[in-house]
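Table S2 (continued). Query chain:
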Amino acid sequence: MSRTKRITLGLSATALAVGAGLGIAGMASATTTPTPTPSASANSTAPADGHGMHGGHGRGGDMMGAKAKELAAKLGVDEAKVADALKAFRDANKPSTPPAEGKKPDRAAMDAALAKSLASSLGIDESKVSTALEELRTQARTDRAAALKTRLDKAVTDKTLTQAEADAVTKAVEKGVIGGGRR
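Corresponding output:
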C-alpha cells in the first residue's frame, strides 16, 4: 500500500473517530430529542424535577441541565426557570419530521427564536439573552478545540499520528469539514 493511500486512510479513520468522539455538537444544539417519561424502571438517581434527565446529546451528559445551569448563571436567573423555558422552547419547536437529507436548519433563525423565547419567558432583554447564548457557544467551541488538541497531541506522542496528520485533522475541524468546527 502506498504511503499516500495509508495517510489518506489514516486521516479518514481519524476524522471519523474525531467526529464520533466529539459527537455532532452543533446538531445536538440545533435538534431536539424527546424527554423520556419517568417509569417504574427509571433511574432512581434522577432528580424528581426531571431536569436531570439525559438529553441524549453527545457523551451522555445532562446537556439540557448543564446548559440551563450555565445560562442561568450568565443571566442571573433561577436555574429551574431557565430549564423550564428551554424545555418549553424545545417542545414548541420540535420538528414534526426530520430534516431532508443534506438540509440543515437555519441556525441563525433558530438562535434568534431561542433568544426571543427565553427573553419573553424570563422577562429579560433579548440582547442580553443573545449575548449569553453566544458566550456559551464560544466557550463550548473553545473547550472542544482544547480537548481535540489534547487528544491529537497524545496521538502524536504515542506515534499513532504524525504531526502533519494531526495538523490536517485540526484544519478539517476548523474548516467545518468534520464535526466540532465552526458553525
